[in-house]
Design a protein that fits this description.
Elements (H helix, E strand, L loop, with lengths): L1 H36 L1 H16 L2 H4 L2 H11 L1 H6 L1 H26 L5 H27 L3 H25 L6 H22 L13 H35 L3 H38 L7 H34 L4 H31 L2 H26 L1 H27 L4 H23 L4 H20 L2 H9 L2
Helix pairs in contact: 1-2, 1-8, 1-11, 1-12, 2-7, 2-10, 2-11, 4-7, 4-11, 6-7, 7-8, 7-9, 8-9, 10-11, 10-14, 10-15, 11-12, 11-13, 11-15, 12-13, 12-16, 12-17, 13-15, 14-15, 16-17
């Protein structure tokens, strides 16, 4: 019960903070930028962002997840790893940039592409360093500080880019957006260093090749998993730009729909970030394994159940939402949105059960499933993108992520003998009631705005009374 209470308190703070910032960034700043520069210009940025992110594994080598687990299991030993990890990260940054540049040359990118490749590479390097400092704070169970850092760069972008968009005297360009990102990441890293406890902030660096090689041997399974996950999450945008007729435009159309998925995924990812160190510590401690099942049940209800509601709302109101947000290509984006939000449910399943498997260290099995998912994703993209464009990429995401999530769920339930009846029945009831309310409101002739608003409010109420179970929640909070 104590782990559930601690998890609930940290989760509420994390979600509240992110709800104050992330929606403004995603739907105010990113949508504003895309509407200002156009779908094709933003599509160029989106494709190059995905391309440079594709090699991000070289920056991380699984270090962030590995470090988060190690600090949670053994604080002293985990923090000592930083003496090797910091110089290792700097060397990996150089390797990452060299490999990315060589790949860009091989693919024939030229002209404006190189501005984006250069600055986005730097942004990815800064982002990974920020995540490493956050991993330490999370592993130390300093979740409040980690939560603040989770929104710092976005908050700075809301302020800076927002001012430039709405009060700037010159036309805003996509290049300016990239430079604002660089400044925001840099400032967030400085804050992360200051928020790390003084006695655990600096240490004598160990730059010996023996130490770095030993560390790489421990982190490579995590690195392989990140490489495979990056591939099936980021190849869509790159393959669209390369394979589809008018590729940059199709990538921009896809980005419009993907932004909605990204909004939900950003919260799910933060949720998983809380779960990972908690699972790691519970698995490390003898006699605490019994607490895993209640934590899984709570995580599934808080993550998978709402994801299903969002999927249903996107299916029925996606056309209206896309038309509200974007100045052009809303109809095409709405077709992609339906498939992408379906895959959001699978992402939620993966964040719950995949995180548990990661914390247990069963990386070999995870990597096998991830490899099969990448193979499926690439094969389907080659087949569907040339004829269906952005909708084909979205359909591919739905199928491949579904395969991955269901495989992880079945494996985790069997290995840990996890009960699923409770959260699954509650989620199904929520989804059925949400669907029923949409049908009734449609028959009554409500306009989309009012239908979406009423259904969303109704679903939130049902969520707290049926899925969360207020009586159980109060019992957990009162537990000392």
């Amino acid at each position: 019960m104590e782990s559930k209470r601690k998890f609930s308190l940290n989760l509420i703070f994390l979600l509240a903070l992110n709800l104050l910032v992330k929606p403004f960034y995603l739907f105010g700043i990113e949508v504003g930028v895309q509407n200002e520069v156009g779908a094709e210009e933003y599509g160029l940025f989106y494709a190059m962002f995905n391309f440079t992110f594709l090699f991000n594994v070289l920056l991380d080598l699984g270090i962030n997840n590995y470090q988060k687990i190690k600090v949670a299991q053994d604080e002293k030993a985990g923090l000592q790893n930083m003496a090797t990890l910091l110089p290792m990260k700097l060397g990996l940054g150089v390797i990452y940039m060299v490999v990315t540049v060589l790949a860009a040359l091989a693919l024939g990118f030229e002209g404006r592409y190189w501005f984006f490749i250069g600055w986005l590479m730097l942004n990815h390097v800064l982002s990974v360093f920020l995540l490493m400092f956050r991993a330490n704070l999370s592993g130390l169970h300093l979740f409040i500080r980690d939560s603040i850092l989770s929104v710092t760069d976005r908050l700075l972008l809301v302020i800076g880019v927002g001012y430039a968009l709405w009060f700037g005297s010159e036309d805003f360009s996509i290049e300016q957006f990239v430079l604002f990102q660089t400044a925001a990441y840099s400032a967030a890293i400085v804050l992360a260093i200051l928020m790390t406890p003084a006695g655990k902030r600096w240490m004598r660096l160990d730059v010996s090749m023996a130490s770095i090689t030993a560390m790489a041997r421990q982190t490579w399974p995590f690195a392989l998993l990140i490489l495979l996950m990056t591939a099936y999450n980021k190849l869509d945008g790159i393959m669209l730009e390369r394979l589809a007729p008018n590729g940059a435009l199709e990538a921009g159309i896809y980005a419009q729909a993907f932004r909605i998925l990204d909004a939900g995924n950003s919260f799910a990812f933060l949720y998983a970030g809380l779960l990972l160190p908690m699972f790691a510590r519970l698995l490390q401690q003898n006699g605490i394994r019994s607490e895993i099942s209640p934590l899984i049940d709570q995580a599934a209800r808080f993550l998978i159940a709402p994801a299903g509601v969002v999927c249903i709302l996107a299916y029925f109101y996606g056309d209206w939402v896309m038309d509200l947000l974007y100045h052009s290509h809303a109809d095409e984006s709405a077709k992609s949105l339906t498939w992408l939000m379906g895959s959001f449910v699978f992402l939620a399943v993966g964040y719950v059960f995949g995180t548990l498997i990661t914390a247990s260290g069963d990386m070999k099995w995870l990597n096998r499933i991830a490899f099969l998912t990448v193979f499926l994703n690439v094969a389907l993209n080659f087949w569907l993108i040339p004829t269906m464009g952005s909708e084909g990429a979205a359909m591919t995401s739905f199928i491949s992520l579904g395969f991955m999530a269901l495989s992880q769920g079945v494996y985790a339930v069997r290995k840990y003998h996890l009960p699923i009846k409770n959260w699954m029945l509650r989620s199904l009831l929520l989804w059925v009631l949400t669907l029923g309310s949409i049908v009734i409101l449609g028959l009554m002739g409500f306009l989309p705005f009012y239908g979406l608003l009423i259904t969303a409010v109704f679903s939130v109420v049902i969520f707290f009374f049926v899925v969360v179970d207020l009586k159980e929640g109060l019992a957990v909070w009162r537990e000392k």
